[in-house]
Amino acid sequence: MKLAISAPRGKMGKLVTREALKRSGDFEIVGGIGPKGRDYIGCDMSVAAKTDFVGANTYDDVEKVVAMSDGVVDFSTTEGAMEVARACVKYRKPLMLGTTGFTEEQMAELEECAKTIPILIAHNTSKAVNLVYEIARMLTESIGGESDIEIIEMHDNKKLDAPSGTSKELGEIIAGVRGEKLADVADYGRKGRGLREKDHIGYHSVRAGDISSTHTLIFGMEGERIEITHRSYDFGTFAKGALDGILFLQGKEPGVYAYREVLGL
What we know:
Oligomer: single chain
Largest sheet: 7 strands, parallel
Distance between the termini: 25 Å
Low-confidence stretches: none
Number of helices: 10
Helix content: 25-40%
Order of helices and strands: EHEHEHEHEHEHEHHEEEEHEH
């Protein structure tokens, strides 16, 4: 497929570019999308992504790149991702969206976009993390009512949004199984005196150094607890998953897709 990559200078954009070059049987990179005014605009994508020669340039014209492609992988900013989504709607192109931190209004617009195109909204494109989601679903169904549930997530000091998209998706799964909305039961951090709110989900975010993506889910019961931790050592895993995701969208009907569907879960 002809692939467009948003934000090839970013951490994930670089990795997606490198992985796509390795998978030349699946992908032909046709262009990158970058912000206006950057010195790599108009240059081969290898300048932005710091890779081997790509044979396609980075442009600041979003619509031009989207129109050339069969689909877009986006790990950028919320504002940049919304611009990409609108262009994908205009040209009827599928979108693999790995960007996180969207507002409720932006999510509502993305759902509207998905009435026209298939969009895979993947807070995490790791196969292992998506299996953790399934374990969280199973544990909630079994012991959620008798457990205090806490989520601890750790990332490097350059991550902008907190809590992470992955941790929010974990909370949404747990709250959904219990017939609740995450916004009604989430507690972010803890300070002062007072008992823990029963049936709430506690969130704790750590940002330090170059810590790789780490998520710990705790089900605390009387006399025992279950802890599940996923640690990422190589972000290339997420890039591979993102490319599998955009391939999955080829030929799909409009709608919002979750990564568990890519894995057949």
